[in-house]
Design a protein that fits this description.
The chain is an all-alpha fold. The chain contains twelve helices and three strands. 72% of the residues lie in helices and 2% in strands.
Length: 323
């Protein structure tokens, strides 16, 4: 409905035999890139606020009262808004992996804001993450059907999706019930809670943002109950993510939390996009119908995951990251 159909590369409109983004997808990628840079800045500012609070009051003062933390929240909101709109223009399987931009920018910011050390291993991880991101953008699959609320309602009534949501909720509840001893000792617990609820957020955000864009273009989607249900889901799961992401940043270092959160969040978001929105359609040119773009997309994901592994666990190998 709101797809120009024109294909563009990083230099503009182009032709040829390779794969390119539609104008609509290019807008989504631009929003996701800028949004993730702002999110990385926000996370580092919030971690810095926690450090200041711990040094000045031993953690007794509410960190929410610090101006640095509040400004970080504002940047977080702006960045998340960019990501929110990105899902309306591009597939979730494309937008979610671009969170690697947050990891990459976090390396630079953590060096200057939190005084963390950048090693050759970290730089190698950054290179792999960038290479993987390029492959993801170039070869990301998408749905072959234009999304509307009627189509989404049909997708959500399928047994596969219902079973997927039940598993996500059951796993999240199980993690909620773990004692604080485990939550504060293993970074994966907090980040897994964020990622599982984030998967529900992503599936809801794409529906709400698509409904909003279509409505602004004259095709009102909000007469239907579904967008409102999705909106409630997005808000409630986003609140849970913010709470547990802040807890993770309080107990673990930024160089550890951000990469682990990225890998888990991306994995579950890709699975969610495939399960709910059927985002597994390959865009192969007519001259090469068997282009295996899905394999290149998966390779990009693997390179990015390994890159963030090097970034994250390289620091732990030097003695930990718990500022």
């Amino acid at each position: 409905v709101f797809d120009s159909g024109a294909r563009v590369d990083s230099c503009g409109i182009c032709g040829g035999g390779c794969l390119y983004l539609t104008r609509q997808e290019a807008v989504g990628v631009s929003l996701a890139l800028s949004g993730n840079v702002l999110i990385s800045i926000a996370l580092n500012m919030q971690k810095h606020a926690h450090n200041i609070n711990e040094a000045s009051s031993g953690g007794k003062r509410p960190y929410t009262s610090l101006p640095v933390w509040r400004f970080g929240m504002i940047l977080m909101a702006v960045g998340e808004t960019g990501n929110f709109l990105a899902y309306a223009y591009a597939p979730a399987t494309l937008v979610a992996p671009l969170g690697s931009v947050s990891v990459i920018s976090n390396v630079v910011l953590a060096r200057y804001v939190l005084k963390e050390v950048i090693t050759l291993r970290t730089l190698g991880g950054v290179f792999l993450a960038i290479a993987g991101s390029v492959l993801i953008v170039t070869f990301a699959p998408s749905s072959d059907q234009q999304l509307t609320m009627d189509v989404l309602e049909e997708y959500m009534s399928e047994r596969t999706f219902i079973a997927f949501v039940v598993c996500i909720v059951a796993a999240a509840v199980g993690l909620f019930l773990l004692s604080d001893r485990y939550k504060k000792h293993y970074v994966v617990v907090y980040t897994l809670i964020c990622s599982l609820t984030g998967c529900l957020t992503v599936m809801g955000v794409k529906g709400v943002s698509t409904a909003l864009i279509l409505t602004l273009e004259g095709h009102n989607q909000f007469f239907n109950l579904l967008p409102w249900v999705l909106l409630v889901t997005v808000i409630s799961t986003a609140v849970i993510q913010l709470k547990y992401l802040n807890l993770a940043m309080m107990h673990f270092g930024a160089s550890e939390v951000v990469p682990v959160y990225y890998v888990l969040f991306t994995f579950f978001s890709i699975v969610g996009g495939i399960v709910l929105y059927k985002e597994y359609h390959q865009h192969c040119p007519a001259s090469n119908p068997d282009c295996h773009s899905t394999l290149y997309f998966l390779l990009g994901c693997c390179l990015t995951f390994y890159g963030v592994y090097l970034i994250s666990f390289g620091k732990r190998a030097r003695g930990g990251d718990k500022e």
